[in-house]
Specification:
The protein has 15 helices and 8 strands. With 374 residues, the chain is an alpha/beta fold. It has 2 domains: 83 residues, no CATH class; 246 residues, Leucine-rich repeat, LRR (right-handed beta-alpha superhelix), CATH 3.80.10. The chain has an 8-stranded parallel sheet, covered by helices on one side. Strand 5, helix 13 and strand 6 form a beta-alpha-beta unit. Helix 3 runs antiparallel to helix 4, helix 9 runs parallel beside helix 11 and helix 14 runs parallel beside helix 15. This is F-box SKIP17-like protein. InterPro entries: F-box-like_dom_sf (IPR036047), F-box_dom (IPR001810), LRR_dom_sf (IPR032675). It comes from Arabidopsis thaliana (Mouse-ear cress).
């Protein structure tokens, strides 16, 4: 039978009970008598729960009254109540440990899949389900720590916060098996996302050479700016990230204050990048698209999403569309520059002439531009 992790520590508040060597033992203490008392308690005959509860109340009340009268100090009651709570906690924790041991023993006997197949099944679970499975028993926990189980990390949250420690730990567990990483808030929140560029550093250190998809979401109030992330993402970090992830094909950065130069380095740096989504990037004009045209090779990007980028410059988008007509960006298939909020109440639509020309010369390209903030 597999046993729980023997290194597992209890809370410090209960260390004096859990570790008898750290406290002075009464001279008349007898371990056999103590064990016998606990055995008698655990072997109590079945009784209605309300009857047992009444017995607890009655006996505990008598003990508290007796101790208080004997010492003449009413604070003894508080200490006894606190000690009783600690003992109850230790009993509960012991029960949980034996429950996990039984679950592990049962799973070893009834689980028909070998560890290799179990790991493969776990690798297909979403991150939340994987954590739930790992908490079931020791056997599942051992299988769930295999790097293959963390090849696709999805920590997109609603209103909850995501901390660097959790993200970095999972990236470290994945190691070179990391294939996709999704982080951040997918609903609006004033708190913003709590992860920083440390997450990217973890990918760099763990050799993200096989990472194919990175999606980061930063949903914050429109009047706020998550300066911590903006400041912490230095050009050297971006350069190291680009160098460390040559297999990246999908890049989605939603709601980050990236600069034009940073965006250009990202778009130019990944040789296999086919999908780029920079929704709600307030600081870009679109100049990086002009730079992409002059790098000496055709960009592999097939899908470009610049939705709700309120500082997009109409001329830059015009230059970009003209370059499509001139034969550049041969791989591009989908472009989205729509916006839900017009710049100063002004709604600008791309001219019909350009749209018509694109349909004639680049019929394989779809442009979504209902309302654009240039």
């Amino acid at each position: 039978m597999d046993t729980p992790n023997p290194k597992r520590q209890c809370c410090d508040a209960f260390s004096s009970i859990q570790r008898p060597n750290s406290v002075t033992i009464a001279p008349d203490f007898n371990q056999n008598d103590f064990d016998s008392t606990i055995s008698s308690f655990l072997l109590l005959p079945d009784s209605p729960y309300n009857s047992i509860g009444c017995s607890f109340d009655r006996v505990q009340g008598q003990v508290l009254d007796s101790a208080s009268k004997a010492s003449g100090d009413d604070s003894v009651r508080d200490r006894l109540i606190d000690r009783t709570g600690k003992l109850a906690f230790l009993l509960l924790e012991s029960t949980k440990r034996f429950s996990r041991m039984r679950a592990t023993h049962y799973n070893y006997n009834s689980w028909s899949l070998p560890d290799e197949l179990t790991i493969k099944v776990f690798s297909g679970l979403d991150t939340k389900s994987l954590m739930q499975a790992s908490a079931c028993c020791t056997m599942f926990r051992k299988c769930s720590i295999d790097p293959l189980c963390y090849s696709h990390i999805d920590l997109k949250m609603g209103g909850k916060r995501i901390f660097d420690e959790i993200v970095c730990s999972m990236i470290h567990k994945a190691g070179t098996e990391l294939r996709s990483l999704k982080l951040g808030r997918v609903i609006s929140s004033r708190k913003g996302s709590s992860f920083t560029s440390t997450c990217l550093t973890s990918v760099i250190r763990n050799h993200g050479g096989l990472l194919r998809s990175l999606q980061l979401y930063n949903r914050i109030d429109r009047n706020q700016v998550l300066m911590r992330f903006v400041i912490s993402v230095s050009s050297s970090t971006v350069e190291a990230f680009v160098t460390s992830c040559p297999s990246l094909t999908t890049l989605k950065l939603v709601g980050f204050g990236l600069k034009e130069e940073t965006v250009r380095n990202l778009a130019e740096g990944f040789p296999k990048l086919t999908y780029m989504n920079l929704t709600r990037t307030p600081g870009i004009s679109g100049r990086f698209l002009r730079d992409l045209r002059t790098i000496g090779r055709d960009s592999p990007i097939k899908t470009l999403i610049l939705r709700d980028c309120h500082c997009l410059d109409r001329r830059e988008i015009g230059y970009f569309l003209d370059s499509l007509l001139n034969g550049h960006f041969k791989f591009i298939r989908h472009i989205d520059v729509t916006s839900e909020v017009a710049d100063g109440g002004r709604e600008i639509i791309i001219g019909k002439y350009i749209i018509t020309k694109l349909k004639e010369q680049r019929s394989d390209v779809t442009i979504v531009a209902k309302s654009v903030c240039f």
